[in-house]
Specification:
Elements lengths: L21 H23 L4 H4 L3 H6 L6 H22 L11 H11 L2 H13 L5 E8 L4 E8 L10 E7 L6 H4 L3 H8 L5 H12 L1
Antiparallel strand pairs: 1-2, 1-3
Helix pairs in contact: 1-4, 6-8
The structure holds manganese (II) ion.
Manganese (II) ion binds next to helix 1.
């Protein structure tokens, strides 16, 4: 029994239909997220108790503390574990629309307005080569939000950025329903964004 267990999805697998289909949700959660969970536990099992006891969010910002031969596994599976836990929760049935609250102000101050932000996020996330994620993050240095893409399962935390809103564009996230049409998936995903959750993440970050 490892330290980490598969996190729950806070709604039914079919709750995001028609934008994200139930079969994709089920396989994505029970197979892919489970594999990252198992991979993280297996990698941690080879490491010191000091590293095993670190909070995952802290561990991902301090990968230099992980011995080099296991660092890639912790980056991949630890990032995958954390990214997907964030992903399930930054979506909800009947989501979407425009955000309010502090995240709206933060987005407007950097991107001018919500539509410009959405356009950049959409365009650049669709354009990710191969597997990766598009992220709205908070940069504690500049104290501003920023958009960034990350390859594979590498967490924005590895760059010192706090993930606020993530979109998984690995083919496993959309191929059953959308096949090669990643743009259709990305455009549909905006209908299930949970802006309340994003606002909560920002509040916790700047508190
Ligand atoms: Mn995924």
């Amino acid at each position: 029994m490892g330290k980490y267990e598969l996190p729950k999805v806070p709604y039914a697998y079919d709750a995001l239909e028609p934008h994200i289909d139930a079969k994709t949700m089920e396989i994505h959660h029970t197979k892919h997220h489970q594999a990252y969970t198992d991979g993280l536990n297996n990698a941690l099992a080879t490491l010191s108790s000091e590293i095993q006891n670190m909070e995952l969010t802290k561990l991902l910002t301090s990968l230099d503390k992980v011995p080099e031969n296991v660092r890639g596994a912790v980056n991949f599976h630890g990032g995958g574990y954390d990214n997907h836990a964030l992903f399930w929760n930054n979506m909800k049935p009947n989501g979407g629309g425009k955000p309010g609250g502090s995240i709206a102000d933060a987005i407007n101050s950097v991107f001018g307005n919500f539509d410009s932000f959405k356009e950049k996020f959409t365009k650049d996330t669709i354009a990710i080569q191969g597997s990766g994620w598009g992220w709205l993050t908070y940069n504690p240095q500049s104290k501003k939000v920023e958009y960034t893409t990350m390859p594979n399962q590498t967490s924005p935390r590895t760059k010192g950025l706090i993930p606020l809103l993530g979109l998984d564009v690995w083919e496993h996230a959309y191929y059953l329903k959308y096949q090669n049409k990643r743009a259709d998936y990305v455009n549909a995903w905006w209908n299930v964004v949970n802006w309340d959750e994003v606002n909560t993440r920002l509040s916790k970050t700047i508190a």
